[in-house]
Amino acid sequence: MTDFRDSTDDRASAIPRRAAARTARLASLPLGMAGRAVGGWGRRLGGQDAREVNAAMSARAAEQLFEVLGTLKGGAMKFGQALSVFEAAVPEEMAAPYREALTKLQSAAPPMPARQTHRVLAEQLGRRWSERFAEFDDEPAAAASIGQVHRAVWHDGREVAVKVQYPGADEALRSDLRQLQRFARLFQTLVPGTEVKPLLAELAARMDEELDYRTEADNQRGFAKAFAGDDQMLVPKVVASSPKVVVTEWVTGTPFARIIQDGTREQRNEAGRLLAEFHYSSPTRAHLLHSDPHPGNFMLLEDGRLCVIDFGAVARLPEGAPLTFGVIMRLALEGRSAELLDALRAEGFVRPGTELDAEDVYAYLAPLVAPLTRERFHFTRRWAQQQAGRIGDTRGQDFRTGRSLNLPPSWLLIHRVTAGAVGILCQLDAELELRAIVDRWQPGFHEGAG
């Protein structure tokens, strides 16, 4: 268990570090997709149904895209995980292959060898690291984008999760994000309803935070303190941390990915309600926002609580959620179009010198606050697909209005995380009383009533 000698197998199975090798893997994506496009065009000329050909092409593109992103780990896998919450917006005839490929990305990646894991543990926890554990399972229990998780027993008998960062993850992350930015337009066509360029820019900006597990540990401690003793939420406590290893309490539950796949109606609704409660209450309770919303980071426990893990990406909100966010939602909900446009201008959502019709802006935003128009709202894939189609239809007024609006940098993360949470609600097919949750926790929403 403490033999740290190099081996050929170790090097072969490590995260691919050489920029040239990783670039070649990523570069294969547009080439493969272009080849399929030419083949599909030929089949359409041959009389095959266009929808069937397009669906088949998209299925193979999804399979190739997420296979490459998953095996590369690093920034490629992180980007795939970030995209995964928008799967609900993919047209139904294409959704099955996306769903399967994305679910794999949320929880699995090729593991690194035990000796390599031991080497990282020795570097981070000391050469006598094994003495800190009563037991340590060399077989990883799960994989993250830049590390893998092992199940173990701490020296005091507590079951723990040990997240170990892949050697070379920093180089891989930087290389991947540079390459992925080159292909942003390609990914935009594969996952409609998402803004891929800002997403990649945000991942790049937060890269250094995620690479230092001490930051993640501090984030998790903040959430654990805020939700300590809560009867609805559980954030596992941090046991130990270092730059490339973090040890937290082990928790067993039903992953959201499994509930999405075959959960009961009751499970779906409760998982959705708890997720919404956590998302909207965190800025007030913890002054933090969990910013990595994908199903792999949430579990439903046997006692009915929501367990949240992975705090590498967290937004600090010392003043809580922006008051203006609630005001904008309320104005859109009540159809106060002139005041809505004024509020958007004041916050920087409208570029200086841009002329916009208040009614067009209201028509653009009103469907997005539909979940707040009734006591209970049913989040469905169909609803997500309708919104993605409406906003992405280049022939429609909503597309032109959206192009005229601007997302201020300070709002980028909140917007993306909220959209991600809604994407999970649609994957869950959850029905819940969202309006009551927003009214309780979102500053400016209740106060904005007039």
TrEMBL record:
Residues 104-320 form the ABC1 atypical kinase-like domain. GO terms for molecular function: ATP binding; kinase activity. The keyword Kinase applies. InterPro entries: ABC1_dom, ADCK3_dom, Atypical_kinase_ADCK, Kinase-like_dom_sf. Keywords: ATP-binding, Kinase, Nucleotide-binding, Transferase, Ubiquinone. It comes from the Bacteria. The keyword Transferase applies. Belongs to the protein kinase superfamily. ADCK protein kinase family. PANTHER family: COENZYME Q8 (PTHR43851:SF3), PTHR43851. This is Putative unusual protein kinase regulating ubiquinone biosynthesis (AarF/ABC1/UbiB family). It comes from Amycolatopsis cihanbeyliensis.
